Every structure is written in C-alpha cells, then in structure tokens.
Amino acid sequence: MPAAVTIDLGVPADDEWGGTGAAWRPSRGLLAAVLAVLLVFTLAGSAPLSASGWRAGQLPIAAGDDFALVGDLLVVAEESTVTAYRVPRLDPVWTVSVPASEGHSLTRAGDLLVIGGLNGVGRQLESTAVTVATGAVRWRHQGRIIPLPGSDVLLAVSDVPSVSASGRRLTGAIDGIDAFGMRRWSVRLPSSAVAVPLPGGQFLLVHDDGATEVRDAGDASVRATGEFPAAAYAPDNPRLVGSTVVLRHPGDNTSRISGYDVRTLAHRWSRTVGGLQSVDECGELVCLGTTIGVRALDPRDGSSAWVSPSWRRALSWGDVTVAYGRPTGVDARLALVEPMTGGPLLDLSAWQQVTSVTDDVVLAHPDAARGDTLVATVASDRRSVRVLGAIPAASGGCRAGGGVLACRQGGGILGVWALD
C-alpha cells in the first residue's frame, strides 16, 4: 500500500455554536469508522499515490451481478450461480447454483448467507440459505427472509406484489423458520403489514389498520398490543431508538412524531413538527430534519435535546453521527458531529456531499487532474483525514470489509484492494 498522507482540516477549537463543546472521547470502534465522500482538494506537496501496485486482484462482474463482503469472503452473485472468494488473494472457496433471477440480494444471518432471487422490480421471490464456510445449501424458501437480532429464528415473508410497495409491506403470512429451514410457526396477515426486528428475539408487527403487536420470535406469542395512528407504515416507520418505538404520522395540516414504549406499546409522547423532511436515529437521539434545521429529541420523553439551523439532516453511520448542511449551489456542508449536542467534531466543509458509506473506508470523488480516486479514513485525532491510497477514477459502487475494498470499474471489472 502507498504511504499514508494526513491532511489537517484546521478545525478551530471554538465552533460556530460558541464555546468549545462538551468533552468527548471516541471509542475504538468510532475511531475505525469512516465516511464516504466526494473529494475536492488536491494533495499539494505530497508524494504521488499510484493506483498500480496496490490492487490485490480483480474479477469479472456483469452490470446486474451483486457482490458482498462476508467475513473474509468476497461473494459474487451471477444470474444462476454464487461464488465465494477468499480475500485478499481471491482464491475460490465455493460455488453454488441458485434459481436464475434478474438480480440477487445477499444477507448474512449467523453462520448462513441468505441469497435472495429478485424480479425486475426488486421483489424477492425466493431465498436460498447456504453455510458461509462451505456454501452447502441448508434450505430454500419462497419469499424474503428477515433476520432477527438475538434469535436463531428467521422471518420468512412475502412482499406486497406492487412496484411502489415492494419490500415495504408484507402480505399473506409470516413464517418463523429455524437455521435448518424448519417452520416453527405461522401467522396469517388479514391484510398488509410491516415487520420491524427488535432486540432480544422479538419483532414488531404493525397492521395496515394500526393494530400493533410485539411478538416473540420463538413461538410467535404476543407480548404486547397497541394501536398506532394512521401512517405511511414502512420498514423504517416506525423505527426503534433506544427503548422507544418512534412513529411519523400525519397531524392537523402538519406532521407529528410519537413515541411508544417498546415493551408495552404504551404511548409516551407526541410532538408536532412543521416542515418535517426526515426522521433519523443519531446516536441515542432522534434527529428530525426540517425546512428550518435539525431538531434532536430525547426518545424517552420527546424533550428537545438540541436545535441547529445549520443542518438540514443528521444521522448515524454505525457509531458515527454526521450532519448535512444546507446546499449552496451544488455543494453541501458536511461535518462529523457530537450526537448529544449537535456540535461539530470534524468540519468537512472542504468536502462535497456523501456518496456512500462503508464500515472501513472513505470513497473520494475522482480527481480529473490526477485521473484517479483517493481512499481515506478519518484520522484518530478526529481533526484530520488520512489518505490511504488511490484507485482508478472509474471506480464506484464500493464496499469494504474483511480488510479489503471492492469497487466496480469500467469494462465489467470488480477491483479489490487490500486495506491492511
């Protein structure tokens, strides 16, 4: 790998909110987290970063093929076959045949990889579960699979068969299946519904009439019931933040946000929010993006934690919280922020808008003058960006994991670069 270059962004101690902000020390996981952004600066005075000599390897990949990094495996799904390669050397590990489809989804569920077959509008019609280690087929099931944290039971569901609702609402029945594909239970849906995974092997089931249940994944027993107001229910509405289920729903000529206890579904609070544009989890808070700024609420009681007119949206990327500023022309201000106060930790005003997020790397915009794309991480001092190296300018659709970066390139090539 080329030598790393650190770029000091020169963030002053006193930020625009006044004062120096609350003392804060990032965790080890946060120090490793990264941002994916479009780079707009040049490395004046630094050594050239060559795109050659860094690459670990490459594979052919068609435009419709999907890929994922699963542990130390790079998994590539073609029309009717799925192949796993060991990274970074890209040694073939296993290949499995799957029913031909127009696209695939790849989802990790414990020691299984669930391969979903998609139709032309993205509706998942069937699922094949294989062991990650060997690729041996464990079971096949119709419909889509939803993993549940803290449970060995998976939800087998069928999406509403429409372009607008595909992947958003469920129909028919929900089956609970174990790691060997055996059905433990089945719940019939009288109409469409939304299932939201909860911690501890439970899930939230919201029917289209507002009837809501918390069910146990082990036997589908009902642990709590409630009634939600009419809303555009979807996999991200409602959402769980801490111990509160947060729902966005219409109010009197405006939007409302309501919070419900996840254990009992008892109503905790409601707030009216004008000009609401987005609802996101930001650390331990709920961040509401509005036409006049961001308002962060404590999900426990709906109280205001902070308000900033500087941002239009704030949300979590893993352990990191980032905020988008109001666009000026084609650019938008971006910063890493302290979620409990909204104060900036790392000013990224010199960077353009985010393109994609991974667990390990930053994807930078191609530099026309250099003819390549830079890859970087946020340095441990939280006040600089550490450039790792360069990849070809045509790279895109990047993902990271297992110590490598994989990106699509022109000519049907999937390039792989070792990050360690």
TrEMBL record:
Chain segments annotated as transmembrane: 30-49
UniProt-listed SUPFAM superfamilies: Quinoprotein alcohol dehydrogenase-like (SSF50998)
Superkingdom of source: Bacteria
Swiss-Prot/TrEMBL keywords: Membrane, Transmembrane, Transmembrane helix
InterPro entries tied to this protein: Quinoprotein_ADH-like_sf (IPR011047)
Descriptive protein name: Uncharacterized protein
Organism taxonomic ancestry: Bacteria, Bacillati, Actinomycetota, Actinomycetes, Micromonosporales
